[in-house]
Amino acid sequence: MTGTQKPAYDRASEDLGNIVNLGHVNFRVPDQGLATSFYMSGLGLTRDPFMMTGVSNMWVNIGDSQFHLPTGPATVADGVLTGLVVPDLADLAVRLERVRKELEGTKFDFRSVEDRVEVTCPWGNRFDCYAPDRQRFGPYRQLMSFVRFEVPRGSAAPIARFYREVMGAVSRFDHGEARVSCGHHQTMIFAECDAPKPACHDHHVQFYLADFSGPYNRMKGMGLRINESSQWQYQIVSIPDMASGAEIFPLDHEIRSMTHPMFGRQLINRNPAQAIFSYAAGQDELNWRMSEPMRRDRKE
After folding, report:
1. Per-residue confidence (pLDDT) for residue 292, from 0 to 100
2. Looking at residue 127, which CATH number applies to its domain?
């Protein structure tokens, strides 16, 4: 940058808060074959080739996050919407159309709406898929961008307070929504509704904390029930009201430290555009993060 004018940086826009990564979202699935058709062939995601390679569980990579899909009675989270960034919406629609026959007789469906493709999995869980957009989703071609929960009227503000004061997260309440930062361009959204769908007790989210003990000690002081998983992990099953201690919203949190053995593990993401008759050598793995040249404020 030339001259005496200094750039007006918004430093707060770079704050992540204490939650540094939305690690995974968990759904139980009764049929691993149908799950493979939907998540891999349809959505174009990647089964983790190293972990959970049997038929009792499947881990599915999307950027540096995952879906965990243990075998069991289907998790149907009617009031939950998961937002994904995928490399190309037109290619996504083609893949989803191809698996329609394989998923016939299930709740699977999709439709293109304005800036996204709305997708329903074989068991009724909902996903909104978006194209890459630096302004909205940062430098990502593939990303678990948000998880949105329907909550009762009057609950979003105290939810934002809980994450801010107990979890140490960057959170805000505005127009009936609590938005909680869960990493770089990753968010949990709690949206107030007049008639929210019943909370799902079989569904959980997992994230990593920089300050692992602080929230733990604060929640212990509140008398909140904490499930002790390991040295690097604990769980809570609901969000309490800071004033009364009463449950505001049931939500299973799997909370991990940055010293957890799985933190920062490099995940393989395949390029879903590869095909037999249009194969491009050297393009099998997806570069899921866009290159972003360093910004300079002055000429060298």
Report:
1. 60
2. 3.10.180.10
